[in-house]
Specification:
This protein is of the alpha/beta class and 169 residues long. Helix content is 38%, strand content 20%. The two termini are 16 Å apart.
């Protein structure tokens, strides 16, 4: 069973094998976690993402899928990019959010990563309610079969940390 930890802080500083990026489908950087990872990791990440766009993902990375690149200058070895769904009042997209976590763990297994840091995928600019995002994230990580030994949710603010803490306990 995966050990689950919570940290309030900056995911770009996480001392783990792989950091998960809440990417946009272009893979070319953006705001929030995505922008922070690209800025801190340096041009190596963007170059690797451009290579992915030129080969397998010409139309972008589909929502719920995951793919790895170098971590550039980050303390991690790899960045696992996943595209979370935009929250909708009228359509249940929770299966896509579950897929982000499952597919990221599957990519981590392929890489041999034993420690992984996740942000609260879709809970920022994609407006997923933080309590529901936390529940889906923690439940999915706990029930997914993986070789990853430890997952750390790195949460940017107190509200997110409290939502995840309520789900973990």
């Amino acid at each position: 069973m995966v050990k689950v930890e919570l940290v309030r802080g900056d995911i770009t500083e996480a001392p783990v094998d792989a950091v998960v990026n809440a990417a946009n489908s272009s893979l070319l950087g953006g705001g929030g976690v995505d922008g922070a990872i690209h800025r801190a990791g340096g041009p190596e990440i963007l170059d690797a993402c451009r290579d992915l766009r030129a080969s397998r993902y010409g139309r972008g990375l589909p929502t719920g899928q995951a793919v790895a690149t170098t971590a550039g200058r980050l303390p991690a070895r790899w960045v696992i990019h996943t595209v979370g769904p935009v929250w909708s009042r009228t359509e249940d997209r929770s299966d896509l959010l579950v897929s982000c976590y499952r597919n990221s763990l599957a990519v981590a297994d392929e890489l041999g990563a034993r420690t992984v840091a996740f942000p609260a995928i879709s809970a920022g600019v994609y407006r997923w309610p933080i309590e529901d995002a936390a529940r889906i994230a923690v439940e999915t990580v706990k029930v997914t079969s993986t070789e990853v030994a430890e997952v750390t949710f790195v949460l940017f603010d107190d509200r997110a940390y409290e939502a995840f803490a309520a789900t973990v306990s």
